[in-house]
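stuck on this one:
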Amino acid sequence: MSQHPYRTLPEHCFWTEAVANRKRSDVDPVLTAKFALARDDRIATAGSCFAQHIARHLRGHGFNYFVAETAHPLVPKHLADKFGYGVFSARYGNIYTSRQLIQMLQRAYGSFFPVEDCWQRKDGRLIDPFRPQIQPDGFVSKAEYESDRRQHFAAVRRMVEEMDVFVFTLGLTETWISRGDGAAYPLCPGVAGGEFDPARHEFVNLRAAEVSADMREAFSFIRARNSRVRFIVTVSPVPLIATADDRHVLVSTTYSKSALRVACEELAADYQDVAYFPAYEVITGSYTRGQYFASDLRSVTEDGVGHVMHLFMKHYARDRREPPDDTASRSSEGDAAGSRQSQIIKNIVEVMCDEEALRR
């Protein structure tokens, strides 16, 4: 038999050996980590809803999850969560797109001032167009609104300048922007505040090259203020809840995730301090037979999140501490308790996802 390059390739290069013949929990598409996370590294997160799982597991494994914007100590945790404190490293809510990320950084440092920067509800309360659900009842006055935003921007600046690692989960390519100055919103105006006006608001579906350009600009922006920071980029496996394009949501989801994945691949290839972590592949791979999604085929199950974070800790955590194992106690309580636990987890994710407001 003649010699050829495939004869000497390692096992992980072959589908049958690396995927098909393995138990679901044993599939590991991460070969090597570009760098390791130390326990005292300040790890910041931002991005789509799925990024919240990363923060939760980092805490559980005893790592230094960096929260630059915290609630008052007397505020109970459930209320702090409701108002977006500690969900991400600052109180910016979901940052679904690369365009949102770079503009958020520019706004925090005073280099971008959107014309449409405050929405008023019919009851007189004010909504932040770029954090439309961060204050569930809105702000009572312009003074309160501006004070909160100053505090928020100060927290973003602190995060940028003090973090050691920034984990960003890209979620969408679809976004709505202002025709006047290109300001990108996390939700279409009119969904959770403001009024939609086709003369002022435009739908944009970012291309892979545009996502890559936005992220490169964001990396440069952050590096200029923090030269030691390292980046981990991921793609959210959560499908689009709705598409503004006149095509099937499944096709739009495939495009969006494909474009984001291409951008991440190029970024990781071009920068030594940028790593891609394959959370998307772990959750959506055909080897799971759909078992990492809940009955809505969109919410990621705790088993799926657990697989992702096990691999994340295995490859990136230098000195991880195993979290308390309560699996056995949950199992002993029977299927009903397990079902309640799954519903609790699912509900938490839904409450914290701005995109849920798009449901028909």
Remarks:
- The CA atoms of residues 38 and 263 lie 27 Å apart.
- The longest helix spans residues 249-270.
- DSSP finds eleven helices and nine strands in the chain.
